[in-house]
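re the bet — no i am not wrong, look at it urself. input seq straight from the record:
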Amino acid sequence: MAHLVGVYALAGELSRSSYLQEALERYEEIMRPYVEKGQNVPKFAPKMLQPQTLLGIASQRGVLRVSDTPGIKQLVTKLFLSGADDFKLPEYGAIPS
């Protein structure tokens, strides 16, 4: 989903400005908070998502099974998701043809 947000913002800023440097600077201003929120991933998450051993696979399945139960699922979502819902996309309107 993040790549779509980036593409949308970049296309919108390029359509607004006649100068590439200006469009890229504005794009970075818009995207910086979104990207920084998304980088707050716990250090163990990448290893958890790609287990290398049978024990790791079994652990992953167990954690996913527990985290999918009602109540726990909402807690896990609050703790580990970046809060991308807080991000407000700019509105660019129609792109001139």
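see?? The two ends are 27 Å apart (CA to CA). told u. also The chain has a mean pLDDT of 82. so pay up
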